[in-house]
Amino acid sequence: MRVLPDHEKLIYSGRIDWSDPKAPVFVFPCTSVGMRFTGNTLKIQVMNKSAYWDHYLGCILDGVQSAVLLPKTGKAELEIPVTPSEDNCHEVLFFKRQDSCHELVFLGMELDDDAEVLAMKPKPGRRIEVYGDSVSAGEVSEAVEYVGKTDPEHSGEYSNSWYSYAWMTARKLNAQIHDIAQGGIALMDKTGWFCEPEAVGMETVWDKINYHPLFGAPVEWDFSQYVPQVVIVAVGQNDNHPKDYMKEEYEGERAAVWREHYKLFLGKLRSRYPAAQIVCCTTLLYHDESWDRAIAQVVQELGDEKITQYLFKRNGKGTPGHLRIPEAEEMAEELAQYIENLNVEGWD
Q1: Within the chain, how many helices (H) and strands (E) appear?
Q2: Mind telling me which residue stretches traverse the membrane in this protein (predicted)?
Q3: Which of 53, 152, 250, 265 has the fewest CB atoms within 10 Å, measured from its CB?
């Protein structure tokens, strides 16, 4: 039995390019498709486009998580082993573990000939959106032997958005998530690590679905498709590359320009989401506290009671490498508790 991507009982999450209903494109981490079904056969058809690293498809089948290696480029049918159950029913979630180091086109699934696609539980009414970098994407999160240490050599195999603080926070809050996160990204173009030497910043990416220069023309996002009640803005760590001007000259011209751009970015988010609670933060990853000072200054200058800043207990001092699972859990626990205490409008 062939299940096409536009089947009415499939449940999707994340910013998805639906230009072709039979071939939706997954770009951002945490983007997913879920299904309940009967039978003992499960295959997924995909097409992958590679920018760098190896790529893995996240899969949670009947509560058991696995990672399936994707082809570098081109189409593939991936068979997922299914353990028979007493009621012959199964639930699967396929999700994008990584950022735009690759783009994934979902082409459908294959089940037993006599299988049935069953209704899924409705998505929760709570919705969050995260704007961030590699930490928000869960990059290198599975390298748990390196807690509190610099990163090991890798080619993408340790990256898993499921274990990002962003998705962990959403699960703790029982909320949907759109994770607009990209490794290496800074706020402004021509700073940060993403797509160096012509670095692309969050100011360019924030309103797009497809944004990687290697994958063709940008695709604009329709903001009416998803309206979060909480927006987390976790940028300001890669902005110290190639020069840490906020640390070196806080009152200098470049630092002032960054603060103005950060203020304008928050204004753009507010114009899209007039009622949302916007939480500004950085992470446990080592960085100079001047960046958090700059964020605090902007938040104060805006004077919007629904735009706040949160500083983690080990903010900027937790680890020289990417956050591993325990460190992401630490962040998520703090952040979820902070958000729950905000009395967010529209949450039950």
Answers
A1: 7, 17
A2: none
A3: 152
Using alpha carbons only, how large is the chain's radius of gyration in Å? Answer: 20
pTM for this model (two decimals): 0.98
Q: Find the helix or strand (DSSP H, E) in which 256 lies.
A: helix 253-272
b/e code 49-87 from CB counts within 10 Å (16+ = b): bbeebbbbbbbbbeeeeebbebeeeeeeebebebeeeee
| Domains observed in the chain | 2-118 (2.60.120.260), 126-340 (3.40.50.1110)
Pairing mode, if any, of strands 64-69 and 56-61? Answer: antiparallel
Whole-number Cα distances in Å, 26 to 146, 165, 183? 29, 20, 16
| Burial of 2 per CB tally in 10 Å (0-12, 13-18, 19+) | exposed
Residue range 147-164: mean pLDDT, rounded: 98
Encode pLDDT of 323-346 as tens digits.
999 999 999 999 999 999 998 988
Q: Strand order of the sheet with strand 277-280?
A: 175-181, 126-132, 230-234, 277-280, 307-309
- Mean pLDDT (the chain) is 97
Residue appearing with tokens 């760590």: 237
Task: Using alpha carbons, list the distances in angstroms from residue 320 to 161, 165, 167, 254, 316.
Answer: 19, 17, 22, 25, 9
Which of 136, 179, 153, 156 minimizes the C-alpha distance to 13? 179
CA distances 145 to 14, 36, 141, 315, 323, Å, are 30, 35, 10, 21, 11
Cα–Cα distance measured from residue 75 to residue 27, given in angstroms and rounded to the nearest whole number:
16
Give the separation between CA 326 and CA 306, rounded to whole angstroms: 30
Q: What is the C-alpha to C-alpha distance for residues 95 and 80, in angstroms, rounded to an integer?
A: 14
Q: What's the residue count for the chain? A: 348
